[in-house]
Write a structure and sequence with these properties.
Elements lengths: L1 H4 L5 H21 L4 H20 L2 H4 L6 H7 L5 H25 L1
Length: 105
């Protein structure tokens, strides 16, 4: 929803990336048997691969630069700050998981 409807300088580019890592992590935990650390590592790897694809202009190479769905899923442009946002997303996920485990204990 953020990618489709929010057009600003903070929420769309950075909060969206933080939430994207959390969403991928949650999906991995829901559909696989991955534990917390392997799941967050996989989520961060997926984010990194997408960012590398942006740096290499994968969409342009595939002729999909004007495809809105492809741009939403893969993003349009490489940004070093996205890597920081992904890392923050990973940290937030780990902190939430640890807090939930403490609460359950």
């Amino acid at each position: 929803m953020i990618a489709l409807f929010v057009r600003d300088a903070i929420i769309r580019p950075y909060v969206g990336d933080v939430l994207a890592v959390a969403l991928v992590y949650a999906a991995l935990r829901a559909i696989t048997l991955l534990a917390m650390i392997p799941a967050i590592a996989t989520a961060l790897t997926i984010a990194l691969v997408i960012e590398i694809a942006q740096a290499l202009d994968l969409l342009g190479g595939l002729g999909l630069r004007d495809n809105q769905l492809a741009r939403i899923v893969l993003g349009g442009a490489f940004d070093w700050m996205d890597l920081i946002a992904y890392a923050v997303g990973g940290i937030v996920v780990v902190l939430v998981e640890l807090a939930a485990r403490r609460k359950d204990a």
